[in-house]
## 1
Amino acid sequence: MTATTTDPVLSFDEAMARFDPVLGLEVHVELNTVSKMFCGCSTVFGAPPNTQTCPVCLGLPGSMPVVNGKAVEAAIRIGLALNCSIAEWCRFARKNYFYPDMPKNFQTSQYDEPIAYDGWTEVDVDGTTYRIDIERAHMEEDTGKSLHVGGATGRIHGADHSLVDYNRAGIPLIEIVTKPVEGTGAQAPQVARAYVAHLRDLLLGLGVSDVRMEQGSLRCDVNLSLRESPSAPFGTRSETKNVNSLRSVERAVRYETGRQAARLAAGERVVQETRHWHEDTGITTPGRSKEEAEDYRYFPEPDLVPIAPDRAWVEQLKAGLPEPPRERRARLQQEWGFSDLEMRDTVGAGALGLVEETIAAGASPAAARKWWLSEMARRANEQGVELTALAVTPADVARVQALVDEGKVNDKLARQVFDGVLAGEGTPDEVVEKRGLAVVSDEGALSAAVDRAIEANPDVAQKIRDGKVAAAGALIGAVMKEMRGQADAGRVRELILEKLA
Amino acid sequence: MPDITREEVAHLADLARIDLSDAELDHLAPQLAVILDSIASISEVAAEDVPPTSHPLPLTNVFREDVHRPGLTAEQALSGAPAVEEQRFAVPRILGEEG
């Protein structure tokens, strides 16, 4: 059943004219550890169902969890990168609830003692910097994956029964929670999106997660409330679950703003509840009313001893943090001499690291940007993959540009070299060799071809002799055709003009 | 003195998915009150200088190396499942509370 309930919605502009939005964002990130949070099961994505489980993550009687040290390290590094304090001492807690995606009937999480707390970060939207305060980042485990059978769309609505795969149950998860984000006004949707994009870059830079939203390794819950004015107390919020693309984060904030504004404008109350996001229609529908924390009956996890990160270790991890994304972008833009627009396009295409590596491999900044943002972006788009998933390395791109600079291939041939590299035919040099793509630099062969073109087009040749240099284009075309594109057009032009001077 | 109402016991039973009849609620609620009383007497003994203890062993930071260890095959994992379909645990329709 698709969402058929349509709530009245006020236009975004109208909503903004009457109300002030307050955001809260909860981001769950799956760590890229080799093994799960509390057991040695594999975390590889896409394995056949229930092939990556053991008594611990299935919650079988008598099994005992042991904490993955690498996951704790990742949690601390994430906390530090978000300017958080790191707990001197903290415990795991059991969050008790019955739901088939959690075979233990509780989720091992952290409650009032998160490993990282009280941080902040900054995001830029159209030249304005917004400070986002971080409430906490805590460690927990992912749940299994349910498939709902019998409903028309595979969603929960109208499902007959559910099928559960526990491969994902127990994968280390870090939940990052912001404090209420105020003062964004009509920029709220863009700020929400920019924050999630910023987190993605930051986590990628830390190397702690694949952060692939389409595979669910980065998921966002969007909290939103409206109030009469920025000085009024917070309104009642809704929590929209599982908003799993950057675009959807922006859309979800926009939709919820309009929906809540319509209720408030009509004198109705906003209900505190979780809401489901519908990617296809861009709307939200009500889920369950929010359980109270006390209903989860949290208590300290007795099977896991407390964590007390050694201060020297924390300092060492802090010293080893990579350059923060904003500083890195500013530095690279300066070094490369890119305009704001060029930089934004490069970042937006997810090409920052690729361009950086291509430059490191010897290409000029302009050439590196040109290849990745035009030719490579087009091919990635055709294949429906990210740029980084293309079978072309920054070193390949730098080498192809070097071949162009050396005059061995022209731009047209360069594209054919990429065809070969993408088809797995080898390095750019091997493709040039195997496909015979090098431009003809044999002066004798070129000269002969030019002579033939002049002979075949006496009228054109006469025009050029008479000083109509623009007519040379037709002869260049004829020569290039004969050479099957493998000639340096500039050199061909020079030869024609010399011969017809 | 802590007190627990019949309604609170009913709510707890609901959260714990324990189906209690009215007669059972009448019978159990006062018993739970006695248990809470007994626990409360421990708080009276513990002074300010005694921190609440969740873990009796003086241990922290017990970590595991991040290495893959083989677990169960799908067949073994599913051997205790009430029902299996498409190599997954088949469970009854999820309750109305999730939408």
## 2
Amino acid sequence: MAALQDGTLDAIKNQQSKLLGDWIGALEANGATRNLKEQDVQQQTAEFLRLILDGIRNDSGNNIAAPGWADTRRFLEGLSNSRALLGYDSHQTAYFIFALKGPLFTVLQDYYRDQPASLAEQLLSVSELLDSFAMHTIRTYQKTREAVIKRQQEELLELSTPVVKLWDGVLALPMIGTLDSQRSQVVMESLLQRIVDTGSEIAIIDITGVPTVDTLVAQHLLKTVTAIRLMGADCIISGVRPQIAQTIVHLGLDLGGLVTKANLSDALKLALTRLGISLAKV
Amino acid sequence: MERIPILKMGDFLLVTIQVDMYDQLALTLQDDLTERISRTSARGVLIDITALDMVDSFIGRMIDTISSLSKIMDAETVLVGMQPAVAITLVELGLYLPGVSTALDVERGMKLLEQRVRL
């Protein structure tokens, strides 16, 4: 692999302001700076160019894993992190680097006008270097996005399974969102554990917030209800909306073993009746 | 040989499983229990599995069998104290135990048995 010559360094240094101008122009034309402050973009581009120059000057070679490129790598990681958190897509993030290619090649073409062999060699070299940096940026971007998604999933899972105590011996679980296998497992475990901990005899599962009930969801519900019954408690399903009732009947699902109520207050009334509690106005 | 004790409390028999169940133990319990029911003409059986934290399909089926057996011999069976993990395992195994009555703890199980027998 051809190393970068000092000539390239000089060329970049001499044309730095033109290079930066063209680069930012290309970024803006592509929409890669959308919502970013102008001075931030200027600062980031100048910083990256400075780091590249430093790297070439220190003869760090084309392998971006080399210690000479550590600062550059760190800068790009920070950059793609912030882009990922700001909601930019991978294309826009990587384009920050790809947009430098055009202006840089023009500068080099100008400089090596009379030496076609050197020009080709230097172009290849610079191109490889920038490509590796772009790949590094995308990789970091991906990692950050994955971390964000994972955290959101965990938060969602925890947020969506609160078991609340409605009365002495009556637990309620208001379910919100689609009920998939993983969630129903978490729901089942936390509800059963709470039944043991509190010694509650009746558990109400409120499905007002569940958008659709299909065969799979119905099966999960049935399993949960059966597990609750096996432990010696009773389960009432509440919040069956009209559309959901229609879906269940049209799908021909057998919910024969379940006690269902239209809303939570009816379910609570039934639970209190079963416990032998009656309420009266004073 | 290891055996699971069967205690007599009035009209009822109380079985408390305190050790890990293995197949032979389950079969012995089945024999012992039916024999005791016929000898004491008990009206109800209470099986406490609070300490049982692992089940397989065999033990699950055994619980079902014991319940059916006692019903034939005119004794109600109530299963009490099932742990969440056990309940989930049984459900995942497809053992819904439709014929078995359940209660949260021994006290409530006794109450349920008394109600059933009085009817």
## 3
Amino acid sequence: MNKIDNIIIKYCVYSIPLLVGLGIWGSTGNPEELSMATGLQGILWNFLGWIAMTWVVSAAYLSCKTLFKSDFREIVLKKISGIKERDEREVQITGSAAKYTFFSTSALVIFLLLLSMFTIKIGKYPADVAKEGKNGFISIGINFYPIENPKPKVSVSSDNLQLFNYSGLPSSNASLLILILSWQLLSYRYFYRKET
Amino acid sequence: MGKSPMKLNISNQISSLRAENKVTQEELAQAIEVTRATIGSIEKGKYNPSLELAFRISLFFKKNINEVFNIEGNHE
């Protein structure tokens, strides 16, 4: 890893608290007013804004390099996941922890895929429509949208007809990816510790 | 299904050989280029070393491999 990459990685890691602070400040105050602000407040807002922009560019560069450069990927991901291969025992433990992590992550992805595909509708027929012995309905089905998942994901209707409607995971793509990534890293660490 | 494979119980004398030669786990680990934890695991029988590592340990103590590692076989 060269010096510039090292500096960029450190910048991306150590500026995270500033970005969190900027996010909190932006969500509690009015960003439009803050961008027009003068004095110390304005200077600070603009400074944090530049930090955020530089962070985004740096993070994009690092993620592209991690994707395409295998030696860089190995160094960075070894540090993030805490992989140690100093001798044959650690290489063996890494292998079996990686196997268990692959299994548990695959199981999670399959589970999330099913949750994102199936639909449940629970409803009650209005009194004039209800037939003898049939006051409500439960419908379970499967939906698959390869490009876009229509909303709403989970809703509880206010009218009498539909009481509950579930059609896919009520989460954003980003939060799902964070969940899978965190699961993968944490399960690797768990299995590694368990094996040692 | 055929006969179940023979399970080998491998024990070792590393701990007593270390005590005899007044060598710490750390010193042995450095000499044979492994971590101290690996020496600990081998001594406790939690990890069976590769043939190469077993020979490195034996050579360190100037012993034959069967003087350091003992194998007892039984069918399960």
